[in-house]
Write a structure and sequence with these properties.
The complex is a heterodimer of chains A (302) and B (445). Chain A has 302 residues and is an alpha/beta fold. Helix content of chain A is 44%, strand content 13%. Classes of the chains: A alpha/beta (302), B mainly beta (445). Strand 5 of chain A pairs antiparallel with strand 2 of chain B, so a sheet runs across the interface.
Chain lengths: 302, 445
């Protein structure tokens, strides 16, 4: 009887996915996080993003095929702050992977590693639009915060794969060194346009403004997720003229029509930027993505 | 009473003191983001090298630990590790991953900590209302569960108010409760527990739930692209949705695509005089099996195929055999929010050991979500005619236009041309309003 039970449990155990067999299998919700994970995980990890840089990360389909990717994930890194609320929870439920549930040992919510902006302080309801009640989740456009997220990923990887401690520490140090050099270069490019005012489509660049010194003139959306009515756009045209707004920044997954209209009437330029790593062909990793964002915005404001 | 008040006040003071400590500026020279951590958290942006140097685990260490684990399991009289559900091991400090930490002048690390302190489940209400116009007497000539008006008279209808309560229960399971308020009263539409931590790809639902049969039948009406259900579901499968208390075991096969096998046992009660086997009243045991698969087909397309079968005891040796095939394809280029969804189902039924014979019905539909704000659909459905209609097939062709004012409100206009046997044609029209308030869990694909 006992031997039969042992045999049965062995058979069941054999069907379980083998963990830590080779590389640590990391799944991230967005490609920016995947790039950061790759930077610190190197050859010790395999990494895949559930969404792509050409997608609006708020509106990814909860496609069950993505649940299959989560089933064998050794680590799930999500942004948090309800960015993925419309699609990640059902996938995590379907995955059967107990440890990637919120607060699970194989879940890292990147927002927990950074200082969050736009945290509402007063009462919140949806008359304010489709806002994120926990704060603004678009923090990867700030390289300082990206560095903090990379450090958190390295710490988590070390916890899950203690054998790689030295490796992760070294990779992280190298990445942070590169990032520091990048930052100095980017700040150099931006130095000439600091203090200039821009509009953005959605509140996606608050952290970029915080880091770069470019001034946030407001959004085309009157409220998050609410399409701009003509009256609002007309007001923006006037403000753009009055306040000398030179650029309207739009992630390339958004419809740029309202931006085009404001640009046409105000003389500002519409600047299409990739929404994330992979958002356009040149944005291969976090650094080249930020290269594009920085140079394009600086170029438009010069 | 007084003592308790004082104790409470003291606790509050202590908490405030602790909070004050946490938001204190970091000590000079410490790395940003690490200083304010009252307790070490792996999620803090701590430099990796700074933790106590631990000897890397070797494979032999691993084997030794497993042995010890087995030894401990034996001593505790528990099954060997890996053979049964284990609580998800929380790593040190992960539970309080969102503890507030401050970096100077930059807000609160981890966002609003209070949002997570609320232990309330997600609570939401979804309201559905319609204005119906029917060019004939629907309950007489084409009986169906709901959404019809008085003949030739525009009729305002209250369809349903769904109250949803959803939350994890503990680290092992989550619970979803849906209470339906409708013109006939109140029902617990669904209330079930779903396991989160079973091994071997298994997931169990237990409670009261919609049977895992077909695609449309498992969805709540507010998920449908069309305002009403195709006739086939109610005429062929069950008078109302197939549902009831029971257990559903779902196995996610270890394959590179999504393949899930459901085996469920439920006591189902069609519970309406419209049921095709209405003569056999009462709750009856029902066995259901379903295999549902989703495949990627290129970058933009996902194809889903489902096969369902069910057997329901009808009393006195009679059986209701049900079968269904459902197809779903969604074509959505990843860079847009527009998509085309194609969906069709075929249902078949046979009564054995009792009168009733066999029947089949089907529907096919296409829905084009043109933009975040607009969507359009067409549908064809056919099913055995019912009521005072001549025996034969009833066919309908429908078109719907949806206006999504936001993610939480939509207005739909649906027009249907209904053809009953004997060339009896009529128009059905529905103007439908739907809103959702509160936090409603995202729906599966």
């Amino acid at each position: 009887m006992t031997s039969r039970l042992a045999l049965l449990s062995a058979a069941i155990a054999a069907t379980l996915p083998l963990r830590a067999a080779a590389a640590v299998n990391v799944v991230t919700t967005v490609p920016g996080l995947a790039s950061l994970a790759k930077s610190v995980g190197g050859d010790r990890i395999r990494v895949e993003s559930l969404s792509r840089g050409i997608q609006d990360p708020h509106f990814v389909d909860a496609n069950p095929i993505l649940a299959v990717k989560l089933r064998n994930a050794d680590l799930l890194v999500d942004v948090g702050l309800d960015l993925e609320i419309g699609w990640l929870p059902p996938l995590v439920n379907q995955s059967r992977n107990a440890e990637i549930q919120p607060n699970g040992s194989r879940r890292l919510t990147a927002a927990s590693a950074v200082a969050v902006l736009d945290v509402p302080t007063g009462p919140v309801d949806r008359s304010l639009g489709d806002l994120h009640p926990g704060g603004n989740p678009h923090f990867l456009t700030d390289p300082r915060r990206a560095g903090q997220v990379a450090a958190a990923i390295a710490a988590k990887l070390t916890q899950l794969d203690p054998g790689g401690q030295g490796y992760y520490a070294q990779q992280l140090a190298e990445f942070q060194k590169r990032l520091a050099a990048d930052e100095a270069r980017w700040q150099g490019v931006l130095a000439a346009v600091k203090g200039r005012k821009v509009f953005e489509r959605h509140r996606t660049l608050v952290y970029f403004f915080d880091w770069s010194g470019i001034v946030d003139g407001g959004e085309l959306e009157p409220r998050p997720g609410v399409p701009p009515p003509p009256a609002h756009l007309a007001e923006l045209v006037e403000r753009a003229r009055r306040e000398g707004v030179k650029a309207i920044l739009v992630e390339n997954y958004f419809d740029s029509r309202s931006a085009d209209v404001v640009a046409q009437h105000s003389g500002a330029k519409v600047v299409l930027i990739p929404g994330d790593v992979g958002g356009e062909p040149g944005a291969r990793d976090y650094e080249s993505y930020m290269d594009i964002v920085v140079s394009r915005i600086a170029g438009a404001l010069r | 009473m007084k003592a308790r008040f004082i104790a409470g006040a003291l606790a509050a003071l202590a908490a405030a003191a602790a909070a004050a400590q946490q938001v204190a500026p970091p000590a000079a020279g410490s790395a940003p983001g690490t200083a304010a951590a009252a307790q070490p958290s792996p999620n803090a942006a701590a430099p990796v090298g700074s933790s106590a140097p631990a000897r890397p685990l070797t494979p032999s260490d691993e084997a030794e630990r497993r042995k010890l684990e087995e030894q401990i399991a034996k001593e505790l009289g528990a099954p060997a590790p890996g053979s049964a559900a284990q609580p998800p091991a929380a790593g040190p400090g992960t539970g309080a991953a969102l503890a507030p930490q401050a970096a100077p002048g930059q807000g609160t690390t981890g966002g609003n900590p209070y949002a997570r302190l609320l232990l309330l489940p997600d609570i939401s209400a979804i309201g559905d209302f319609a204005l119906a116009y029917d060019g004939y007497d629907v309950p007489q000539s084409s009986p169906r569960p709901d959404l019809y008006g008085r003949p030739n008279t525009p009729t305002p209808l209250f369809q349903e108010l769904e109250l949803a309560l959803q939350s994890v229960v503990d680290p092992y399971a989550r619970a979803d409760v849906f209470i339906s308020f409708h013109p006939d009263g109140v029902d617990v539409e669904e209330a079930y527990l779903t396991t989160l931590s079973l091994p071997a790809g298994l997931q169990v639902r237990a409670g009261k739930f919609f049977s895992p049969f077909g695609r449309l039948e498992q969805q709540h009406p507010h998920v449908w692209d069309f305002v009403d259900a195709p006739l086939a579901a109610t005429r062929v499968v069950a008078g109302d949705v197939l549902s009831g208390p029971g257990v559903d075991v779902a196995w996610l096969a270890p394959l590179p695509w999504f393949a899930e096998l459901h085996l469920a046992g439920q006591d189902t009660a069609p519970a309406t005089p419209l049921d095709p086997g209405a003569s056999a009243a009462g709750d009856r045991l029902t066995g259901i099996a379903r295999l549902v698969q989703f495949f990627p087909a290129g970058e933009a397309t996902t194809v889903g195929v489902g096969l369902s079968a069910a057997v329901r005891g009808e009393g006195a040796g009679g059986l209701r055999d049900l079968g269904g095939v459902d197809l779903y394809a969604r074509i959505r280029p990843p860079e847009t929010r527009a998509y085309l969804a194609l969906q069709g189902e075929l249902y078949g039924r046979r009564f054995t050991g009792m009168p009733g014979g066999s029947a089949w019905g089907t529907y096919a539909q296409a829905f084009w979500r043109q933009s975040p704000y607009w969507g359009y659909g067409v549908r064809y459905d056919r099913a055995p005619a019912a009521g005072d209609s001549a025996p034969g097939t009833e066919q309908r062709a429908s078109a719907v236009a949806s206006w999504f004012l936001s993610e939480f409100q939509r207005v739909r206009l649906q027009a249907t041309w209904d053809r009953r046997p004997g060339g009896k044609d009529a128009l059905e029209a529905l103007l439908h309003l739907e809103f959702g308030i509160g936090a409603h869990g995202a729906h599966p694909f």
